[in-house]
Every structure is written in structure tokens, then in C-alpha cells.
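> forwarded from #structure-qc
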């Protein structure tokens, strides 16, 4: 999984290179690989200028090149990161990109600096998760042409919408901003539930289940909840990682909610020997 581009590279980009990135982004809505002739006519650059700028972007792993069946270029995640970071910087949402926090199945997460410390989540929808999202979650369109960068935008939009809907009734990160495939949210200082040593595990389980109940009452099911995406900070629990949520009216909502609840009950039973009935808990969560 590619890492987001460095801040130095973002700052050092020439305006011509930015124009190429923006042009590729626009044209990839129609082409998987943008033909060289179309890129040339769209940017109005000379052949030599375009070749030089493309060589730099390829070197920085922002753009990829394919020779057959025609000469074509595609914007890839590092280039997409660059466009998102520049926009977030222009809005003063993000002033600096900090250290890597973690790498997930569908994202890379960095600490950043805005008005306060923030989290930047770069969505990275892979081929396997892309197909899963189409089949199980149903929020990706059925048309064939959907580059992963644009699928990642939809994933980020979904997560940002969930956070906006849930906060502050549910203990989730505060949504701050979004651009393209990057979600900016408040930083929660803590560890994931699976790594925490709880002093009052029954109270924590009750709090998590209440958050699930509140989410359900707001029409949302997390759909991928486990001990790995609950963060503990100062004794409080926060539910994170929401791009895969479904509405409570979704045909798979009940099965996905049952899996969420069962994951957590199984964790607390195994680590803290707390026994809860799945059926009774489901009734409390949905009641």
C-alpha cells in the first residue's frame, strides 16, 4: 500500500505538474488510461514540456504510464494525495502532515496539524474491498469504469457523512473536513480496545453497546465493528472506522449489526469472562 506523498514534494511541485494532475483527474472519469495525445491537447503543453513534467511525476510515483495498446497515463494515489493535501492546506484545515499512526485494510492514517492536532485518513479502496463494497454494502455504482481513486472518494464521503450524522450523540471522532479521499477528524489519544487493560470492563461494554444503540436510533449500523476499531481514551470508548456503514433499512443491516454485536460480546467473554446473551443484547441495541 502506497504511503501519502511527503509535504516537501507537495510544496516543490511546479504549477505545470499540478495542471497535469488536475487534468488526469478530470479525464480519468472517462478513461482508465488517458491517451497521451488527449493529455497534450488538454494541457496545451509542448511535447518536450509535457514529457519532462510527466517524467518527474512518474519518478515521484504520482502518475503511472502504460505503453500498450496505446500510450496512456493514469493518476495514482500519491498524485491524488497531493491534490487533496494542497486543497486542505489552502483551506487552512491542515498546516502540516505528521507521523504515521497506522495502516488499515482500506486506509493509511496520519497525524497532522491544523488549528489543533488532527487525524488525516487517506482512504485506499483495494480491488477486493471494492468488490465487497459493491456486493455487501451497495453504495458503489454498478458501471464498469470506476478507478480505485474514485471508489476511495466515495468511501471517504461515506465515512464523513456517518461522522457528521453521529457526532455528538455517539462517541466518534469530530469530523473537521474532507477533500477527495481524505477525511480530517479530531485526534483521539488512546489505544484500541484489544490492547487496553480495562479497570471496569462491564461499564465499558455497556458504554459501547449504548453507542451502538444510539447509532442504530440515528439510522446507522457500523457493519465492521470489533475490538480493533474501538479506541479507549481516559476510560471512555470511541467508535472509529465508518466507511462501510449501512442504513438500518438496508437488507443486510440486521445481519451486519448482529455480527458487530457478536464480535464485541465474544471479545469481552474471552478476555474478561463477561457473559451476555446475544439475543437479549440485540433486543436492547435495537429497542
Amino acid at each position: 500500500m502506497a504511503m501519502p506523498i511527503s509535504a516537501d514534494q507537495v510544496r516543490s511541485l511546479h504549477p505545470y505538474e499540478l495542471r497535469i494532475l488536475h487534468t488526469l483527474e478530470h479525464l480519468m472519469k472517462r478513461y482508465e488510461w488517458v491517451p497521451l495525445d488527449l493529455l497534450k491537447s488538454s494541457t496545451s503543453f509542448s511535447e518536450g514540456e509535457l514529457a519532462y513534467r510527466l517524467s518527474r511525476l512518474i519518478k515521484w510515483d504520482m502518475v503511472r504510464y502504460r505503453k500498450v495498446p496505446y500510450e496512456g497515463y493514469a493518476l495514482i494515489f500519491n498524485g491524488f494525495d497531493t491534490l487533496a493535501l494542497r486543497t486542505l492546506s489552502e483551506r487552512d484545515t491542515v498546516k502540516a502532515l505528521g507521523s504515521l499512526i497506522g495502516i488499515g485494510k482500506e486506509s493509511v492514517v496520519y497525524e497532522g496539524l491544523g488549528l489543533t492536532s488532527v487525524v488525516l485518513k487517506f482512504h485506499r479502496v483495494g480491488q477486493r474491498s471494492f468488490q465487497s463494497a459493491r456486493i455487501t454494502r451497495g453504495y458503489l455504482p454498478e458501471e464498469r469504469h470506476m478507478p480505485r481513486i474514485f471508489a476511495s472518494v466515495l468511501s471517504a464521503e461515506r465515512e464523513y457523512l456517518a461522522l457528521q450524522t453521529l457526532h455528538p450523540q455517539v462517541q466518534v471522532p469530530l469530523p473537521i473536513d474532507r477533500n477527495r479521499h481524505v477525511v480530517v477528524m479530531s485526534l483521539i489519544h488512546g489505544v484500541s480496545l484489544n490492547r487496553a487493560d480495562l479497570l471496569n470492563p462491564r461499564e465499558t461494554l455497556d458504554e459501547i453497546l449504548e453507542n451502538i444503540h444510539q447509532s442504530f436510533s440515528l439510522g446507522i449500523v457500523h457493519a465492521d465493528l470489533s475490538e480493533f476499531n474501538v479506541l479507549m481514551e481516559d476510560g471512555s470508548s470511541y467508535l472509529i472506522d465508518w466507511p462501510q456503514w449501512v442504513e438500518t433499512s438496508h437488507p443486510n443491516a440486521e445481519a451486519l449489526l448482529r455480527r458487530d454485536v457478536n464480535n464485541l460480546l465474544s471479545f469481552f467473554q474471552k478476555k474478561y469472562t463477561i457473559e451476555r446473551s446475544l439475543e437479549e443484547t440485540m433486543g436492547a441495541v435495537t429497542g
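QC bot note: The two ends are 41 Å apart (CA to CA). The chain has three domains: 7-79, 92-186, 191-286.
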